[in-house]
C-alpha cells in the first residue's frame, strides 16, 4: 500500500531531509526532517507534517503558529534521499523568528548578514519559547 515510501533512502534514524519551497516564488522556506509516518500523513492530509527530532514527535507545521503549509506537490531527488515539498505558506511566515524564510542570512565578506525583516514578532506568534524544531 505504501510501497512509494520504500523507494526513499531513509537515513540511519529513519529520517529524510525535507525542503519546503514556495509554490509561487520558488523561494526555499525551510528544511526539516520527515519519517515514514510524517511523509505518509503529509501526502494523505495535503499539508506539511514533519518529524521533530528535539521533541520526538510529529510536528504539524502551523499547529501553534497558524502558519500551515498547504501541499501543492511532493518531489523526490535523483538519489531518493531528499524530499521537496512545494507549498503554499499560509500567513507568509515559515520561520519561528517571524520571517518569511528560515534562510534569512547571507554570507558577505567574512560574516553573516541578516537581510530579511521580521514580519511578525515571535512572541506574538507563540505562547512559549520556541525553536523551529
UniProtKB/TrEMBL annotation:
Lineage top rank: taxon: Bacteria
Binding residues annotated for Zn(2+), in chain numbering: 78, 95, 102
Gene Ontology CC terms, in alphabetical order: cytoplasm
Keyword DNA-binding: no
Cofactor requirement: Zn(2+); Mg(2+)
Phosphoribosyl-AMP cyclohydrolase domain boundaries: 30-104
UniProt-annotated location(s): Cytoplasm
Keywords: Amino-acid biosynthesis, Cytoplasm, Histidine biosynthesis, Hydrolase, Magnesium, Metal-binding, Zinc
EC main group: hydrolase
Pfam families: PRA-CH
Pathway(s) per entry: Amino-acid biosynthesis; L-histidine biosynthesis; L-histidine from 5-phospho-alpha-D-ribose 1-diphosphate: step 2/9; Amino-acid biosynthesis; L-histidine biosynthesis; L-histidine from 5-phospho-alpha-D-ribose 1-diphosphate: step 3/9
Location (main, coarse): cytoplasm
Reaction catalysis annotation: 1-(5-phospho-beta-D-ribosyl)-5'-AMP + H2O = 1-(5-phospho-beta-D-ribosyl)-5-[(5-phospho-beta-D-ribosylamino)methylideneamino]imidazole-4-carboxamide; 1-(5-phospho-beta-D-ribosyl)-ATP + H2O = 1-(5-phospho-beta-D-ribosyl)-5'-AMP + diphosphate + H(+)
Record text on cofactor binding: Binds 1 zinc ion per subunit. Binds 1 Mg(2+) ion per subunit.
Biological processes per GO annotation: L-histidine biosynthetic process
Zinc recorded as keyword: yes
InterPro entries registered for this protein in UniProt: PRA-CH (IPR026660), PRib_AMP_CycHydrolase_dom (IPR002496), PRib_AMP_CycHydrolase_sf (IPR038019)
GO MF annotations, alphabetized: magnesium ion binding; phosphoribosyl-AMP cyclohydrolase activity; phosphoribosyl-ATP diphosphatase activity; zinc ion binding
Binding partners and assembly: Homodimer.
Family according to the record: In the C-terminal section; belongs to the PRA-PH family. Belongs to the PRA-CH family.
Job of this protein: Catalyzes the hydrolysis of the adenine ring of phosphoribosyl-AMP.
Name recorded for this polypeptide: Phosphoribosyl-AMP cyclohydrolase
Gene source species: Pseudomonas matsuisoli
Amino acid at each position: 500500500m505504501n510501497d512509494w515510501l520504500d523507494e526513499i533512502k531513509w537515513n540511519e534514524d529513519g529520517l529524510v531531509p525535507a525542503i519546503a519551497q514556495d509554490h509561487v516564488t520558488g523561494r526555499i522556506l525551510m528544511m526539516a526532517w520527515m519519517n515514514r509516518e510524517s511523509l505518509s500523513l503529509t501526502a494523505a492530509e495535503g499539508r506539511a507534517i514533519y518529524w521533530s527530532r528535539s521533541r520526538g514527535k510529529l510536528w504539524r507545521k502551523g499547529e501553534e503558529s497558524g502558519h500551515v503549509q498547504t501541499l501543492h506537490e511532493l518531489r523526490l531527488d535523483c538519489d531518493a534521499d531528499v524530499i521537496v515539498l512545494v507549498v503554499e505558506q499560509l500567513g507568509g511566515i515559515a520561520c519561528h523568528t517571524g520571517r518569511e524564510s528560515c534562510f534569512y542570512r547571507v554570507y558577505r565578506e567574512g560574516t553573516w548578514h541578516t537581510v530579511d525583516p521580521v514580519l511578525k514578532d515571535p512572541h506574538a506568534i507563540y505562547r512559549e519559547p520556541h525553536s523551529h524544531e
